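Appendix B. One record, verbatim.
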Amino acid sequence: MLLAGLLLFAVVGASLERKLTQAASAQDKAILLPVAMYHSVTDLGESPGEYVISPEMLEHDLQYLKERGYETVTISDLLAYVENGSPLPEKPVMLTFDDGYYNNYCHAYPLLKQYGMRAVLSPVGKLVQQYSEAEDIQGHESWSYCTGTELQEMTASGVIEIQNHSYDFHDLQTRRGCLPVQGEDTSAYQELFFQDTRQAQKLFASLGIAEPVCYTYPFGARNTQTDALVEQCGFSASLSCEEGIACIVRDPDCLKNIRRYNRDGRLNSEQFWQKLLEQAGEVT
């Protein structure tokens, strides 16, 4: 009886060890993450366009993903997976909105709530401050930007996660995004970058919004110098404008320069999402 019991224990133990090994292997498997980059959501003016989609088109996108069992994740979810081993959905997808247009608040936010989805919003700090302070420019669907109060509401709901899109690196007349200009003193440029970043972080903190952990490159402009500065600022992740499917593994480096596809309003939901989802399914 003792020998039989020991043999049974050994068999059960070996089986359990195999299952644990298989589970660990599954956890370490690369997760292919489709990431969409939205901008303006309105049916006014020149809609749709390369950086503009209508609210109806956005709703079709959400329906398309919902029907296929996709669940939205945020930067915080990715960090929890990479750093703590927290699970991600079986079919994850990330929706990002750049610049912080007011129509993201009046159109995208209600639709995300309606469909039980979440998104990452990267507003321009200076525009948040400007539109918070001047009531006469608030609330215009086609060209206004979100106020601090609107950002507070969206983040408090759990639907929107705010990340850093710089405070004032969106004036193409002076430089291309956050890149240095030719001949600029390196020390002066670095201090400018740090100051701009701190100003945006301080603004969000003053609104009671969780400190952003991701840097969203203005216009997607980046190089090895900006990558180093972003890391020095303490950001755990960054969003680029380079097209491709993000590959998430248990390595913090996978969260640097996460690739995204611009949501071109000239494509319908099937044309846009089929391309991304097929790519995400091609690599194992």
